[in-house]
Amino acid sequence: MTGVTDTAELRRRTRELLAAHPPATTGRTDFLKARFDAGLAWVHYPAGLGGLDAPRSLQAVVDAELEAAGAPGNDPRRIGIGLGMAAPTILAYGTGEQKRRFLRPLWVGEEVWCQLFSEPGAGSDLAALGTRAVRDEATGDWVVDGQKVWTSSAHLARWAILIARTDPDAPKHRGITYFLCDMTDPGVEVRPLRQITGEAEFNEVFLTGVRIPDAHRLGPVGDGWKVAQTTLMNERVSIGGMRIPREGGMIGPVARTWRERPELRTHELHQRLLTLWVEAEVARLTGERLRQQLVAGQPGPEGSGMKLGFARLNQEISGLEVELRGEEGLLYDDWTMRRPELVDFTGRDAGYRYLRAKGNSIEGGTSEVLLNIVAERVLGLPAEPRTDKDVAWKDLTR
């Protein structure tokens, strides 16, 4: 049975899953595989691919039943790139074989994904990327050479979503192709990038003679920019539109400190906290509305506005927290170089939150680029002049 739209039917299926695979006696991975096979992973996906062709809004019904039963989750923070970026792109553009091969281990968390998009010379202007993919006519494989940067989880990833230039004679937006890259290929080298927090959560990735079979190409040759837009729109929704409770996210620790430490309060800080608390709640409710809009279709440019607000709010709130704590706010718990398995925007202490928030206006699209997207695609304002729009990539000034 597909196309489930009845809440009672979803509850029945969820309870059947729990009865057949009791969380208390079933291994975590086995339970997650059974959940995927029952169509209860992401209910809005097609039957056979972890879903039931159900409305996206009904996922909450399944999640509530499983949470009440103490069922294990798939740790979305660790596999967020796979869930929020790779999966919707594979679903939209992948072949049947690609969907069957990649979606199940991705959702279960057996295979971690990373994103090979940004380059040292192609960050804000991503379409200017220079990583090359050349077709080996003898085998049909693509041979990839280049460098990527700011790659979260590359040190953990089994697979990567990759865009590379396949036609240097075409304008920059039209000569790109999208691939699924095996991170265990001997030509892939991952090097840590130590950040202002002391961690190396990001990486740079060097690709030397990496061979990608044509069966791991996603979408038509030369149409990679269009495919990448699906990834980027989903990325910005996943960053800026995360579901959080009231006083979740950055505002939570500040509000707790305010309540628990009355000796730190001043009138000026009180006014700033009230303003930011209201803005955080508006952002939270706007994100909820955005998720509801997703029920009717694919994410649009509105996600860029959410991500833009997320970055600004995080930076202002974390700055307020450091000021509120006074001398304590200048302390930092641990500068040890580490390569974390997940990104925790609100983890550790106030100093960590303050420093980590600086990256929020860069990752997932810089705030400057997102302002252009909101202006042009949401507000309908005239586009900025682009003199290189019809110039072959090989003729661009670099």
Question: What does this entry look like structurally?
Answer:
With 398 residues, the chain is an alpha+beta fold. The longest helix is centred in the C-terminal third of the chain and has 28 residues, at 267-294. A 4-stranded mixed beta sheet has the order 1-4-5-8. It has helices at residues 7-20, 28-37, 59-68, 80-93, 96-108, 224-240, 251-260, 267-294, 302-325, 350-357, 367-378; strands at 113-116, 132-135, 142-148, 159-165, 176-182, 188-193, 202-212, 217-218. The protein is built from 11 helices and 8 strands. The protein is globular and about 75 Å long. Helix content is 40%, strand content 12%. The chain starts with 6 loop residues before the first helix and ends in a 20-residue tail after the last helix.
Which features characterize this protein?
four-stranded mixed β-sheet, four-stranded antiparallel β-sheet, 12% strand, alpha+beta, 398 residues
Topology as a string of helices (H) and strands (E): HHHHHEEEEEEEEHHHHHH
Beta-strand percentage? 5-15%
Low-confidence stretches: none
Spatial order of strands in the largest sheet: 1-4-5-8
Structural class by secondary-structure content: alpha+beta
Number of strands: 8
Mean pLDDT rating:
91
Rg, nearest Å: 22 Å
